[in-house]
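Comment thread on ticket #2218

A.B. wrote:
> Attaching the input chain for the structure job we discussed in standup.
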Amino acid sequence: MREFQVRSISGSLLTDSHMESPLHPPVPMRALLAGARRKERALVDLARRLVLAESPSDSKPAVDACATLAGAYAQSIGGRVKSHRQRAVGDVLEVRFGPKSRAAKPVLLLGHLDTVWPLGSLQSMPWRVRNGRLLGPGALDMKTGVAMALTAIELLAEADLLTREIVMLLNSDEEVGSSASRPITERLARRSAAVYVLEPAQGLAYKTARKGTGNWRIEVKGVGAHAGVDFEKGANALLELAHAIEIVSAWTDLNRGLTVSAGVAGGGTKNNVVPSEAWAEVDVRFARRADAPLIARKFTALKPADKRCTLIVTGGVNRPPMERSRGTVELYRKARTFAAELGIVLEEASTGGGSDGNFTAALGIPTLDGMGAVGEGAHARHESVFVEHLAPRTAVLAAMLAT
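C.D. wrote:
> Ran it. Output below, let me know if you need it in another format.
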């Protein structure tokens, strides 16, 4: 099953009559595309430098070094750089471009520099350009998207179209839950007119909805015993865990976009011992914000079938869902219009994966996601970016920033 659904506006939750909005002044799309094509080689080189600066979430020095590189480039094109210092994770990079205005709120460009790849991954996944693709750890998720955004801003500055303030926030812990960067993201989003998220596209589509995410851990304390001599005196923790997994898995409701999946489990010590301990990690995805407290209450109410066993349930919601809203749809419609001027059919998609855009959308700020690179294999060894889409997508991003 595909992870996403591509939906046209005609089949959306909001009809066209609900989404009409005044057109902004014309944007020179062909000129932006030509400029993006001229800068494509420099864009690829910036992506290369970012990928070569390996930055796994759990290595603060590495993430900080990558942020220093990105900050230096941003400063070279007129950015005003600020670093939010962190202790446990990499520092969070904030860069402001363009003039401040009391009349217009800024636009927030949201991205991250941390990756899922450990240090040394370049040895087996070297940076390379091959068969029209950019390959390397973090190339798709999401260092090329960062390079695209910086190139788009550079295009606007050179064309004298950088007429409002743009804030770029590059987080350092997105791949591990964003616990440190979330307050910064939410504070800046509340002051912004819109949020554009530089995560990879979903196929060729922008993302207008994402599921919320939650993680729970179920621990079972049973009674250990000799499996042959004292079997009846034991309370099998693995059996109790299997019962609990069966219960929580039944909470899945595909019609509601709710999935509950036990992904990792363990327990026991020896084959001839009734296990006294067992555990499981459970992933939850939900499309509706109202389902978050519902699923949390169900986990809290989970009881053992064997009264001799004890259940310890911990965890909770990590990210609220990015529900498809009128403001987000209006942003998508604008982007679709710009893309159409270049002969591109830009669809929208929903996905089960979460991003920092979930946080901003939950605040009611219009948020458009998937505005980064087009490719395949995020978090996989064949992670790659399709070069042919770099210039057109950068031009559309620049147009969205210009309005």
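A.B. wrote:
> Thanks. Noting for the ticket: Confidence is low (pLDDT under 50) at residues 1-23.
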